[in-house]
Amino acid sequence: MTFTPLTLDLNEYGILSGQLYQPEVHSVGQLEQSVNFRKDARLVILLHGWGADGSDLAPLAPSLLSQASVASEDTSSAHHSSFGGAVFVPDAPNICSANPFGRQWFELSDPASGIGRNASACLQTAEFIAAMLDALSKRIGYASYQIILGGFSQGGMVSLTAGVGYEKPLAGLFCLSGAWLTSEQTCHQPTGLPVFLAHGVLDPVVPFACITQAEADLKKVGLTPQTLHREHMAHGIDPETIDALARFIASL
Question: Distance (Å, rounded) from C-alpha 219 to C-alpha 147?
Fold first, then answer.
């Protein structure tokens, strides 16, 4: 796999580090040239779950672009030479309170204290993610409408909150085994923004009911998500989910 370390200066939000997967180019400068050549190129941002870091999900990067690469090969020769897709897998900015070797996007409160506190922390993190999106656009040349934002578990929660609230149009959003904690927020994305939700029916960590609630709440703000229910999956990402997500990305 072709990964390049990428560090972003988010000004008042500090430094963000991560890995950039780019199957066809080998430097940030070359990537920018590729994006300029292919305006249909997509940058997938993949946010990890609570207590993990970017290395946990990085192995998924090639699979997420596989369907898009196939679609590119099926187009005319004018589009053969470069697909131009990439996947950015960042590390969350904070050390996990329950695992000093992992990271967290926000502090998880005791479930007994109610979901409101988690929702507030998630909403505050959305500002950090917005700064990340702006910095990525400036650094490697992707426009907001070329960016697909998503993640797993806590990373999925952050992605939905930050994506819905981001004031520039995105290409798409996805949430794997997560939830939309901030359904009262204002949606700044255009009606019809593609959204993909996947969840395991047997999930003991984030209840399966979270996907049905997210679907209903997203519809209220004009978004109609595609959903995938995995009957025998617990809290994780199985091959069928990866394949479905890759097809979703290729369709954008």
Answer: 21
Domain of 158: which CATH number?
3.40.50.1820
HSE of 70 in the Cβ direction (CA atoms, 13 Å)?
A: 11
Q: SS3 letters for 7-26? A: EEECHHHCEEEEEEECCCCC
Mean pLDDT throughout 161-183?
97
Using DSSP, state whether 83 is helix, strand or coil: coil
- Comparing 111-115, 191-195, 199-203, the range with the smallest average pLDDT is 111-115
Q: Model confidence over 127-154: pLDDT tens digits?
A: 999 999 999 999 988 999 999 999 999 9
CB 90 within 8 A of CB 54: yes
Domain limits at 58? 3-250
Listed in sequence order, the residues at least 6 apart from 167 whose beta carbon sits closer than 8 Å to its beta carbon are 130, 188
Distance CA(122)–CA(226), nearest Å, equals 23
- Return the amino acid letter for 160: L
What are the pLDDT digits (tens) for 26-47? Answer: 455 555 554 444 677 899 999 9
If one counts the domains in the chain, the total is 1
